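The authors assume throughout that readers already know how a fold can be written as discrete tokens. What matters is that the chain and its backbone geometry are given together, residue for residue. A single example would do more here than another paragraph of explanation. For illustration, here is how one protein appears when written out as sequence plus structure tokens.
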Amino acid sequence: MKTKTTIWKAEHHLKTKEEREAYLNAAFEDGDASVIAAALGDIARAEGMSKVAKKTGLGRESLYKTLSADGNPALSTILKILKAFDFNLRAACL
């Protein structure tokens, strides 16, 4: 009997706002900018990249590139994307 495997994609498991929030918070806790950018990309794909592009006024193709693990989004871009997800960014004491 053969075992069937499939590729695991984060965006398939980020269905609710609470799941997306927890996923993004885990990325922020990691503290690695590339992990945060990739997490934002996963959430954008779960939301629909075209929808996020329209809400942010950014190009869909540039979002894919910017929100990859190799991307380096500007803070202004991150803030636009967070707003599109109905999230905000705030500081907290450790």
